[in-house]
Amino acid sequence: MSTTPENNAREVEGSWRDLFNREYLPRLVTLALALWLHASNSMLTATTMPSAIEEIGGLELISWTFALYLAGSISAAASISLLVARQGLKKTMIYAAFVFTAGCAVVATAPNMPVLLVGRVLQGLGGGGLIALVYVCQDRFFPNHLVPKTIAFLSSVWMLSSFSGPVIGGAFATVGEWRLAYWAFAAQGLLLVPAVHFLLGGSESEVDVSSEGIPIIRLLLLSAAILLVSLSGSYYHPVGSPILIGLGCLALFLFVFRDVSATRSRMLPSQVTDLSHAIGSGILATFLLSISIMSFLVYGPLILIELYGLSPLQAGLVILVETISWGSAAILFSGTRAEAEPRLIKAGCACALVGLAAIAIFLPRVSLLGVVLAVIVLNGGFGMMWGFIIKRVIGAAPAAEKDRTSSLLPITQQTGFAIGAALSGLIANSLGIDQQASAGQIKDIAFWLFAGFLPIAAIGNVFAWRFVSPDTAR
């Protein structure tokens, strides 16, 4: 995008009215529906699987309902730029919607757990494709000065979706109709198809169709990385779990190394491993910070119930504070002027570090107010900077790398979340978390679940500062 004075003025003057006009609103609603389908279904199994297991069995496989969804989601997101190059944006999004819908239908009709897991893989492939396409679309169909507000709006949708998924699943399961929850989302997946036609009508001519193939080996390496890491937390063993995490990280490294070395069918931008470039430093900062914030989502409710005596509903409301803080901060700071963005990114990263340290201090001390304030600081920090990180990372990409860079952002975030969740399980289980754990043990676990991630968050801060440095290549 040009940096003429006229464009700079537009960047300063971008407003919510500009975003919610006749041109952009239909696109925004369509992207919100695609995001909703992915975010709400990622956690839908949390409240539907107990009823499903009661009907079809398969308790020993329950951890795979999330792991396989995540593996499919990240693998699909990684290959989206290639699929868009081959099929065009509209067709790819329609295919993703159909795959997601098929997955919902398979889960809704599953006679046993193995079939249900096949459906979860399909849901993950479709949902991961949709979320990656949301990032590609927001770059293609919204001007750069509206990106922070676009991301703020979509962050709010994500907030609503991630909270609503378990609630919707629980409502259907409570009345004995857990399968209807998946039929309901299958119908919404089909609804996305005509919406995409409306969103992308007439834009297909902008796409240069490519004949590059899909790199199966690299996708298998990426899927193996996610599955190995997820497995390490699902079935804890003092020796086996660290080995699985190590193997998962090795598979992830090999995926990145093979992709950046490839002469064709690359899924990642060429600058992803260049830490002197804004893309490399920005992606690494995002990855490290995403790892560091997962402990509270994974173990926060359990600790609040066991140590604080809260009910599951009360603990859930504290988790809701997380998502509200993120979305509210994204909206509140979305109007920040371009010249203030580096300071806001630095402040947001610092808030994430301070919030993490504060949770490590307050959670073992049974200070609910302190914990809530710390959670607000941690997730508010992420919300205030996330839209600007996306804007600046995509803005630093050459035109030929835009789609790869756009789809890389959700891959980075979700992979970081998966590794963070696995490391949280490793810490908690190594310290003896179980139903017989004493209050003293739980306090120790509560401290190390967050203090243990402070070095990772600190390194993330270093690369975030490097990301916004004037000396970093763009």
pLDDT < 50 stretches: 1-13, 203-207
- DSSP, total strands: 0
Distance between the termini: 13 Å
* Helical content (DSSP H or I, runs of 4+): over 70%
Mean residue pLDDT: 84
H and E string: HHHHHHHHHHHHHHHHHHH
Tell me which CATH architecture of the largest domain applies here: Up-down Bundle
CATH topology of the largest domain: Growth Hormone, Chain: A
- Can you identify the CATH superfamily of the largest domain? MFS general substrate transporter like domains
Strand fraction equals under 5%
Categorize the overall geometry: globular
CATH level-1 class of the largest domain: Mainly Alpha
Class computed from helices, strands and strand pairing: mainly alpha
How many domains in all? 3
Major sheet characteristics: none
Q: Helical element count?
A: 19
Rg from Cα: 21 Å
Protein architecture, described:
With 474 residues, this protein is mainly α. It has 3 domains: 11-210, Growth Hormone, Chain: A (Up-down Bundle), CATH 1.20.1250.20; 215-264; 270-474, MFS general substrate transporter like domains (Growth Hormone, Chain: A). The protein has helices at 5-13, 16-19, 25-42, 45-56, 64-87, 89-109, 113-141, 147-174, 178-200, 216-234, 240-261, 278-292, 295-308, 312-332, 341-362, 368-395, 402-430, 439-451, 454-467. The chain is globular and about 55 Å long. 54% of the residues are buried.
